[in-house]
Amino acid sequence: MTTLKIADVLALVLGPECAVEITAYDGSQHGEPGSDVRLDIRSPRAMSMLVSAPGQLGLARAYVAGEIEAHGDLYTVMDRLAGAGLPELSVAERARLYRTMAPFVIRRVPPPPEEVRLGGSRHSKRRDADAISHHYDVSNTFYRWVLGPSMAYTCAVFPEADATLEEAQAEKFDLVCRKLGLQAGQRLLDIGCGWGGLVVHASKHYGVRAIGVTLSERQASWGRAAIEREGLSALAEVRHQDYRDVLESGFDAISSIGLTEHIGLANYPSYFGFIKSRLKPTGRLLNHCITRTDTSSRTMYKNGFINRYVFPDGELVPAGRIVSAIEDQGLEVRHEENLREHYALTLAAWSRNLDEHWDEAVAEVGMGRARVWRLYLAASRMGFARNMIQLHQVLAVSPDENGFSGVPLRLKFDTA
């Protein structure tokens, strides 16, 4: 029985109507000739990576290593491949497929150096710090190119579909402040504050005394400089600190924007218990995080691309688990909102920024890490657009001993 050309393998796996042109090092071709997007399988090493880790991880390894190249828009490539049919194979077709793939299984290739596996106890302070450092202590210059002037690395809120990224990030910060009902003189704790954008916005526009904490030294340094530039040192502070080491309490509001994904489901009771202990009666929590729609398993892609290359130890759960975990600690949920389409728009803007600064980004962080980011942004955008993952904001309050919440009968968050 003869072996197959690479294109024949892809035809079996992806189906005959693939809308992406795929070319291979053996001269074979599959998919739509002359397509606006093309995937080029450059070497046997690429096939070994694909076979040794079927699915997203193998494809990611081959792309990060440069053994597979995408021509045209990477998001379009991934979106079309995700929509490709997976035909049923006959016994004879499976036998030919296995025979062709056997040499690649034997020829195992090590993953790219950008892949990380952390040591130590999961979600210990040391390991959490290492996980955050891996992703966030890359280069503030690189992040400035990707995120834009706001340095906001969470889902923006687009007041209109054609709003700029900066307008949308400003609206996100303000929406959080409005949901928290911030007023001058109140105290805000921002857990996982990033580069301090919300801390600055809340102090500057709402007159609150704000403390932000982050495990990234580079983020903290940037945030402190931003506070000084804005002349807000009397009101705002950004610390390089684990949230578990915050001793102050009696906060009027606590924001957790894009941090719950790093906490781990097993630690939700202690996390939201900590928040409850730091809020004053009638104080509010705004929890903003990515969730998954698949409820069949505990973790999402535990050993996949995102966990190995982007967010080590990250864990996504369905939105209902977040709500339940918050309520289990005696906090009362008053409002919930899904902003997943806004995150797809945010990621598209970040991808454009990266492409516009591609040469500088490669020079700053290296080709491998730049390719990790290009793939990560495109894959995440596809996840939100296809409703595989979502972005939920949950507003909760800590009622007083008599059950009084201090929340108005009708909550309104618009700017009118």
TrEMBL record:
GO MF entries: methyltransferase activity
Pfam family, one: CMAS
InterPro entries: CFA/CMAS, CMAS, MeTfrase_dom, SAM-dependent_MTases_sf
Domain Polyketide synthase-like methyltransferase: 142-399
One record GO biological process: lipid biosynthetic process
Keyword terms: Lipid metabolism, Methyltransferase, S-adenosyl-L-methionine, Transferase
Similarity comment text for this entry: Belongs to the CFA/CMAS family.
Protein name, as recorded: Unannotated protein
